Design the sequence.
DNA sequence: AATATAATATGATAATTATCATAACTGGAA
DNA sequence: TTCCAGTTATGATAATTATCATATTATATT
């Protein structure tokens, strides 16, 4: 009985195309790590030489700007692979990957992935599609950044977080981001983000439960985001 | 003697990995089109069922917003492939492709590309790397949109156009974009773009030769863009 | 060449968003 | 508990950018 076989990453990512033998090979070459909230999996400019499977937790891909702000490019969750792009491009990481919630990840060496890529057409197609999906999302984000106001982007992002990560028993968003991180996703100043959350609260679109956020009027948020 | 063999796209794109037999197959399945400046190669939402090789000219990938503005995601030139992403993702095009200068393109059916993808590891790796390159660029653009001012983005874009497309004998930029298109690339209002070009002109960073633009102080533009 | 149409230019103003300042709250460490 | 550091909150103001109005210039069409 090998551990990769039942792993959520095996079920959700490109790795689902691997056959029994390949999964065994995978299990033998992987290394498992635990990453504490706030810690980095890899930093911008580092050569990673492989990909990371996210078994548990939530991570963010971000880039630090000259003025010290951290622009978040993407949030990643259990089941996803990390570091595919720089591995394929043979380049140092363009972004840093840090844990937003405690994470458990496995590292798979590049040689292993390339072997699968060259010998398993379904795997290479899956990997390709996953990068294409990222590209589409990135392009759409880019367009939203230009064509939408900060208010619209906040509404959109709250809905997206709700869709992607779900809610706790108390109906608050499951991913717990700081206001600064949220601002980093929508691309605005932390104060602006806080201010708009206050506004949304007053308009009964959301409710602020301490630092947590509960979506109260999803319909109105959708209308605002469109 | 077959025509694809000497084609610039064959030399520059993922297609460089194809062997003689594959190029013959390619030549037999392709269709050639001429696209007039301003006309579309494909529109957002269309199912393309293949990729387009750009033999000559310049194109733009863009998305129309609700308020009627055309946000340009990427410019493409001779030697590049178009429509890879939606073909791989099995989705209608996310963006429209239109000619910025008269173009000559060849259409390669999806079945052909998939056959190469599954049978030629170097080709699939090249294709993958090309999508990864697009992803990296898109992510960096996204960050620039948030972290840089319109002025910085204009400087950056002018330099990028200069690098990528070169200059005419009179030193003006070779790609001739309207101010509206330029605004669509940097993500701002046309008037703002025009105003800043005026400012740059007064500061002797550029010179406006009718509708054409000549970069006069590249060093200063670089400093401004940083 | 004359006219129409579109592109470029510039001014005035409004809206959006960032920045700086400071206060209130929160969660953890001693 | 009490204090401290970090986060959240809000006000005041400045900077950036969009919008609307209107010239001016270029390009195309008859």
Sequence:
């Amino acid at each position: 009985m090998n551990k990769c076989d039942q792993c959520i990453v095996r079920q959700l990512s490109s790795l689902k195309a691997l056959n029994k033998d390949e999964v065994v090979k995978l299990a033998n070459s992987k290394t498992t790590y635990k990453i504490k909230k706030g810690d980095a999996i890899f930093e911008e400019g580092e050569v990673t030489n492989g990909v990371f499977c996210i078994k548990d937790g939530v991570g963010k891909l971000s880039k630090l700007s000259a003025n010290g702000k951290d622009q978040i490019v993407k949030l990643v969750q259990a089941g996803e692979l990390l570091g595919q792009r720089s591995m394929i491009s043979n380049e140092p990481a363009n972004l840093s990957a840090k844990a937003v919630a405690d994470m458990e990840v496995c590292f798979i060496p590049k040689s292993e992935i390339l072997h699968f890529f060259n010998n398993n057409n379904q795997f290479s197609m899956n990997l390709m599609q996953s990068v294409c999906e990222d590209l589409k999302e990135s392009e759409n984000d880019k367009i939203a950044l230009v064509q939408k106001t900060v208010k619209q982007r906040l509404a959109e992002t709250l809905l997206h977080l709700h869709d992607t990560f779900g809610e706790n028993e108390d109906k608050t968003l499951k991913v717990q981001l700081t206001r600064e991180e949220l601002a980093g996703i929508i691309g605005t100043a932390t104060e602006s983000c806080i201010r708009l959350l206050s506004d949304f609260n007053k308009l009964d679109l959301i409710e602020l439960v301490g630092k947590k956020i509960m979506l109260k009027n999803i319909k109105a948020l959708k209308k605002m985001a469109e």
Remarks:
- The domain at 147-225 of chain B is CATH 1.10.10.10 (Arc Repressor Mutant, subunit A).
- The first helix of chain B runs from residue 8 to 12.
- Residues 149-151, 188-189, 191-192, 210-211 of chain B lie near DNA strand D (CB under 10 Å from a C1').
